[in-house]
Design brief:
The complex is a heterodimer of chains A (115) and B (111). Chain A has no helices and eleven strands. By secondary structure, chain A is mostly beta strands. With 111 residues, chain B is an all-beta fold. In chain B, the strands form three sheets. In chain B, strands 2, 5, 6, 9, 10 and 11 form a six-stranded mixed β-sheet that branches. Chain B is globular, with a radius of gyration of 14 Å. The chains are: A mainly beta (115), B mainly beta (111). The interface between A and B is medium-sized, with 29 and 26 residues.
Chain lengths: 115, 111
Amino acid sequence: EPEVTQTPSHQVTQMGQEVILRCVPISNHLYFYWYRQILGQKVEFLVSFYNNEISEKSEIFDDQFSVERPDGSNFTLKIRSTKLEDSAMYFCASTPSWSFNNEQFFGPGTRLTVL
Amino acid sequence: AQRVTQPEKLLSVFKGAPVELKCNYSYSGSPELFWYVQYSRQRLQLLLRHISRESIKGFTADLNKGETSFHLKKPFAQEEDSAMYYCASTSYGGSQGNLIFGKGTKLSVKP
């Protein structure tokens, strides 16, 4: 059964460094999402992406963040200058079409640790 | 702002006991509601959604608009039900289906 994959599983970086988190959504899916979960807190929406552009973004998704679909398979989240508070689990998700009641398929997550 | 509340951080029951995981939402329109589950060392996955009115792994959830609740229930808990359970909603308010999650409830089913 196809699954969303994410790499790396764990990323450790120094404050101020740039990081790129990678996701490969399920191949026939068209809508892509990034969420994050700070330890002990709720899963929070960051951004949705469709047709090579951002559909919606949350307040968390400020100028430090960007997303890209550089080729037909990868979907990346870049944090330009990491802060301590960016330490979290980052989840990618995808869905085949847009509907309010569609299931979103999640990746296993990337744990980002900013030192 | 749309909000999903799960009041219990941890729920511990014995095998065979009934389970109810509480979820309340705040939204004046007609939200779509979901339960996602995360078993140990596995990814978040959909358990059920209210529009389907289905029973998955013995779990059911009924949308109560009067109480703005979507509690998850199972009459007889099994040890394999132990997991983190997240209630989530989407909205018709112009969003592209992004999910709003509750904080999650950890269900522990003891033998």
